[in-house]
Write a structure and sequence with these properties.
This protein is about 20% helix and about 30% strand. By secondary structure, it is α/β, with parallel strands linked by helices. β8 (about 165-170), α6 (about 180-190) and β9 (about 190-195) form a beta-alpha-beta unit. Bound molecules: acetamide.
Length: about 280
């Protein structure tokens, strides 16, 4: 399959301009799967809840998901994109998967970063994995996680345990460590990963966040198939067989997922750490 990302710098609170920018970039696309950044229509660093309310949309009935459906149908490309979701009076930082036949699936970001915790509810849909197919009809399993989910190995592991061949990872990365961590997530779970990041800076009255670019496509071996530039628009597409992710044996004795010993693992924190800081 041919799969990759579009890296760009969304403009704050300018959904029409951001959708138009994406439409221009993908009009001549030749890909089975394309991942767009987190919150690609709205920008990231909301200055108020009113700003978020202005741009959040229902999925799948909102303008953005409808535009994604049109683009997927026109190009034959499955799209995964991050956007602010409104569900009644509740807001989620979501990713939507849109297939060329118009069907859609939603993931709501579980691990909220920084002031997102004041704007959004944590995701309530778990880490679901969905069937998708290439333009030649090869079926594969596609999981979604959003940005800061990378920090929690359980996210990618949950997707791999449910059979994900490819993890689509819309992002607005701020911390510098993700591009060196995703190859490990890919290797330890034996999956392909596609991180679609943004670049640029956004300012929220008192402070600024700078996004680090360096979107990335990783192979189940942990090899980086492609790493993007720090500060430029880029569409990167790589060719690979998603079913390669399914050979999870390490040698004739060991298997990446089969050798796990969940009964020995600790999933709850029992040692107390330092007091959680409430100011930043
Ligand atoms: C992030 O989760 N957008 C850093």
């Amino acid at each position: 399959m041919k799969a990759g990302y579009l890296q760009f710098a969304p403009q704050y609170l300018r959904p029409t301009e951001n959708r138009d920018a994406v439409a221009d970039h993908i009009s001549t696309l030749d890909a089975d799967l394309l991942v767009l950044p987190e919150l690609f229509t709205s920008g990231y660093f909301f200055q108020s809840q009113a700003h978020l309310q202005e741009v959040a949309e229902p999925i799948p009935d909102g303008t953005t998901t409808q535009a994604l459906r049109e683009w997927a149908s026109a190009t034959g490309t499955t799209l995964v994109a991050g956007l602010a979701e409104r569900d009644g009076e509740v807001f989620y930082n979501s990713a939507v998967l849109v297939r060329p036949d118009g069907s859609t699936e939603t993931y709501r970001k579980v691990h909220l970063f920084y002031e997102e915790t004041e704007r959004f509810e944590p995701g309530n849909l778990g880490f679901p994995v969905f069937e998708a197919s290439t333009r030649d009809g090869t079926s594969y399993m596609l999981g979604m996680m959003v940005c800061f989910d990378w920090y929690f190995p359980e996210a990618a592991r949950s997707l791999a345990l449910q059979g994900a061949d490819v993890i689509a990872h819309p992002s607005n990365l701020v911390l510098p460590h993700c591009p060196d961590s995703m190859p490990v997530r890919a290797r330890e779970n034996h999956v392909y990963t596609i991180t679609a990041n943004r670049f640029g800076t956004e300012t929220n009255e008192t402070e600024s966040l700078t996004f680090i670019g360096m979107s990335e496509i990783c192979a189940p071996t942990g090899d980086i198939l492609h790493r993007g530039p720090r500060d430029e628009v880029e569409i990167a597409i790589e060719s690979f067989d998603p079913h390669e992710a399914r050979s999870r044996d390490i040698n004739r004795y060991n298997d990446t997922l089969g050798d796990r010993r969940p009964e020995t693992y600790v999933t709850e924190q029992t040692a107390s750490g330092p007091e959680r800081r409430t100011t930043h």
